[in-house]
Each structure stands twice: as structure tokens, then as C-alpha cells.
Amino acid sequence: MTRTLHVRIESADRSDLEERLEAIDAGEDVEPSEPTLSIEDLETFGRVFRSTNLELLEAIVEHEPESIRELARLVDRNPPEVLDNVNELADYGLVELEANGRAKRPVVWYDEIDADIPLTAGSGQERKANA
Hints:
Helices cover 40% and strands 19% of the residues. The protein is of the alpha/beta class. The strands form 2 sheets. The protein has a 3-stranded parallel beta sheet. Strands 3-4 form a two-stranded antiparallel sheet.
């Protein structure tokens, strides 16, 4: 079964989350929503999903490495550089780091990313003006 993370370029809207939490607190049944990550702008999207980071995500999903060092070996890169990239991915919730003895094991719960990239400002995307 494919597990998909949906990524949108938009400001994070937490109003739906607050309503869902209130409904849960009130004991109401709440339908599960699709896992979605909001990225604030196209520049950040490009940085987070650059080719080196995508290569790391693919290696994690495909090989399930036991440590950052093993992940670095799989992608033929230096462990400190890989650690920096993995920490950035973890900051966005794209990777979880699980304790594995003295090492940290990178884990990805999804195997597909679906990106929604609006091409017009009317689609909810705020564009930065060139100064």
C-alpha cells in the first residue's frame, strides 16, 4: 500500500487543526485527514526538496539504514554533510530520527510525495517581489 505525504506551497493554516482538536476534545468522531506538509514559499520548497535531499529520502525508504553513517555510505557522501541535510529534513517533519544505541536511525513513514505547486498568486501562493 502506498503511503503518500501531500506537500503544498502555502502559509500554514492551523484553523482546521484547531477545529479538529476541539471536536476530539468534545468526544466527536473525526475522520482522519490526509497527511499534509505546508511549505511557506517556492524558494523554501526548492531548498528542502533539492536533489541531495531527495536522494537521501529515497535511500532511507529503499534501504532503511540503521544510522546516519550507514546512510552517508549508501549515498557516497560525508556523514557530517548528511547529518546536516537529515536534520533539515527532520525540522520539516520529513524524517524522524530514532535512537538506535549510540546512533540515530533515520526513518521515513511515507513512500511517495505528492506536491501541489500553484502557478498563480490567486491559488493561495504569496510570491516575493523582485526588488
